[in-house]
Amino acid sequence: MSLIVHHLNHSRSQRLLWLLEELELPYEIRFYQRNKATMLAPPELKAVHPLGKSPVLEDGPLKLVETGAICEYLVEKTGRLGPTDPDEGLRHYRQFLHYAEGSVMPTLLLMLAMSKVPLIGGIAVKKVQPMVDVHLDYVEQVLASRPWFAGHALTAADIMMSFPLEAAVSRAGLGTSRPATMAWLQKIHARPAYQAALQKGGDYAYA
């Protein structure tokens, strides 16, 4: 039985399609479109899961939300794209698997929310930018020291980190002043599995 991915356009669920392509697992996509005025997920997703968010992964009777948890489940299921060294797994892989949503994305979302506040939005964004820069500088330091987030091979940690760093290019000034991070983005975008996921997933504003 194929896995089912409930996928929202222009969203973090693009990472799950990439992961599945890297793992070479068969899957079916069920597509959902954002409301063009509000950019919110459609109410139909609440029929899939009470949170009404994407991605949702179905594997037979099992239904999972939260991209990090889904990544962990698929890595354990296949034995692939996890850490190749136990020490790296503790120090790097697990950290960055959760750092993406636990630290980087909340700061980026705060910047996005502040940018939409009338009159004072620009001022608020300038105050948030140094908070974002702390994370971007840290990421640059890491990627200048090793080719992938967990060490010397692509893992699910890289897949988790892709969305916040792609979003940072368009929302938070990530650019050529951080060459190691930009080179990493170019490297993941060139992967055949990433390209296949992009072709299958539809509209995605951050690649």
TrEMBL record:
Residues 86-207 form the GST C-terminal domain. It comes from the Bacteria. Signal peptide: none annotated. Residues 1-82 form the GST N-terminal domain. It holds the Pfam family GST_C. Belongs to the GST superfamily. This is Glutathione S-transferase. It comes from Ideonella paludis.
